[in-house]
Amino acid sequence: MDQLYIIKRNGKREPFSAEKIKNAIAKAFLSVNSFATQEVLINVMSRLKIHDGISVEEIQNQVEVSLMAERYYEVAKAYILYRQRHYEDREVKEKLDFLINYCNASNAATGSKYDANANVEKKNIATLIGELPKSNFIRLNRRMLCDKIKDLYGKELSDKYLYLLNHHFIYKNDETSIANYCASITMYPWLLDGTRSIGGNASAPTNLKSYCGGFINMVFMVSSMLSGACATPEFLMYMDYFIRKEYGDNYYQESDKIVDLSLKQRSIDKVITDCFQQVVYSINQPTGARNFQSVFWNVAYYDRYYFESLFGEFRFPDGTRPIWESLSWLQKRFMRWFNEERLRAVLTFPVETMALLSKDGDIIDTEYADFTAEMYAAGHSFFTYVSDNADSLSSCCRLRNEIQDNGFSYTLGAGGVSTGSKSVLTININRCIQYECRNNIPQYQFIGEVIDLMHKVQIAYNENLKYLQSKGMLPLFDAGYIAINRQYLTIGVNGLVEAAEFLNIPIDDNPLYQKFVEDILGLVEKYNHQYRSKELLFNCEMIPAENVGVKHAKWDREDGYRVPRDCYNSYFYRVEDESLNLLDKFRLHGIRYIAHLTGGSALHANLEEHLSQAQYRQLLRVAAQEGCNYFTFNIPNTVCNDCGHIDKRYLHECPECHSTNLDYLTRVIGYMKRVSSFSQARQEEASRRYYGKM
Ligand SMILES: [Zn+2]
């Protein structure tokens, strides 16, 4: 027996020791006030079948069986309890190790083991409290989902789901939270009743002051019931209403008028920008309710056509309509204010989207097209959504939404703004494609099976959500902020470019690549249609993969798959590719590639320096012509670590104090963040990004 080796829990080999087992058994006897003689010990031990490479776990299982076979039931029970205690000890030890590693990590994103996309700048006791239960949440979420899959489709499918998950063919996003994912809300129920219907105690806003204060509280409450972003497409429209109620419909034409008779003598404009300041700074604060994350807040701006499509039928509770002229002024005022404020402080939220309607290769509302180009040229960073159909809208940072109901309801507000994604489940295309090749499976056969299963898993998720709602756990749905049947179940895609590279397809605009993209995304769309029902909506999204992109690359490399970069792309081109120009990138995010992405994708045009208004204006035409519907321009902003100066340009020396101790602000995915707050892996990816010139 001395020649044998056993495998310890940490995977290490150790010589087998009969003495250790004897001691453990003897202790179990003692713990029930009994004593094991040599003879008893030999009888129990003789039933064990030890072989080379046996695990500790297996030996202990055999000891249990052996004690029972020898009829020492009390002792067996004590032994089982002893094992359980040790199991719990090990669990605590693991948490303790995690705690120590987290304290030592270079920043919060790097320390986070499970979910580095948390929008946390600093790590501290509050963020640690948020990290610790994450592994338990993952286990609980898996259990709930698997139980439901078993109910609906049987154990075989639930086992297959776990297999695909554990072998990284698919990835369940946001398993560390139990809340549904993201939502674009209508605030109409709040306008009618305040926050009481979602468990708050605030009554409906009645003036500009209570609107701004109440809005902040309401967004915090809503966000605490979501795991992802909260979009408020009506934020400025309602604000315009309350400003008009206070200062008249023509307030924007006399914004210099002094309306504050205190010593401050504030003008209408100053009152309004003070409101902006209150809301934006409050929402960018880390919050206790979300473990020191700020809420992920999105707003939208509309050109005249989108405004009419979305809010044409809208009526405020007093029966009045929104007014385009004053809202348009307010939109522009907010955007200009926010751009300037970002020179004073690092402000991540709101993530802004400008929605523009296009026709015949240009933006119809030329005033808004010019203004959009002006804001980009002024160094502002925001997303633009261009569509030739006013019935589709990007109201959330990552979601293209086919508006099914632009109508207005007196209880629910504007139908088109209420949407979101309930749950995201992502397929790792690179691994799936390579798995098919390795195993001589006809192309797309395995992928088809995986996508089919993903839909069933999402349906099971939806059933669990319906259960929570039936128990009154989802007041956002009950109160009408969001509608469960207007929220999508999202099939995420990752590793698409990497899969094409494996197949030796050139990654540029060519028929072969276009066909490959169409085949894969078309397959997802096929199943999306197949499983669609009255209460089930599916969409397909090229997920930002802030954190999954890094994980997939690491896991795939460990399992011997071909992995061309450390972080899988979220674009249709290679992020480090210097051979493609900006127009190529618009083309690769144009209609021929994104046609099946009903859940959206975003082109992040990384540029080294700002372009002129005329150049940006021309790029809006390019977007309209190519059918690239969602994009932003990233020019890293410079933050001086020594004097605090913020500059909209990408600089290598501080223009104020000439320090070279600089940090940069850029988009990790959707939102602007200090590069030093990215996770280690993401910082490396960011350093390889290619910033082009025009
Ligand atoms: Zn400086």
Helix-strand layout with pairing:
Layout (H helix, E strand, L loop, with lengths): L4 E3 L5 E3 L2 H14 L6 H9 L7 E2 H14 L3 H32 L3 H4 L13 H7 L2 H20 L1 H12 L3 E3 L9 E3 L3 H6 L14 H17 L5 E2 L3 H13 L20 H16 L13 E6 L1 H8 L12 H18 L9 E9 L2 E2 L2 H12 L5 E5 L4 E5 L2 E4 L5 E2 L3 E2 L4 E10 H10 L6 H26 L4 H4 L9 E7 L1 H7 L8 H21 L5 E6 L5 H11 L23 H7 L2 H4 L8 E4 L6 H14 L3 E5 L2 E4 L5 E2 L14 E6 L4 E3 L5 H9 L6
Parallel strand pairs: 1-3, 5-6, 6-7, 7-8, 8-10, 15-16, 16-17, 18-19
Antiparallel strand pairs: 1-2, 4-15, 5-15, 8-9, 10-19, 11-12, 13-14, 20-21, 20-22, 22-23
Helix pairs in contact: 1-4, 3-4, 7-8, 7-17, 8-17, 10-11, 10-12, 11-14, 15-24, 16-19, 17-20
The site of zinc ion has 8 residues, from loops.
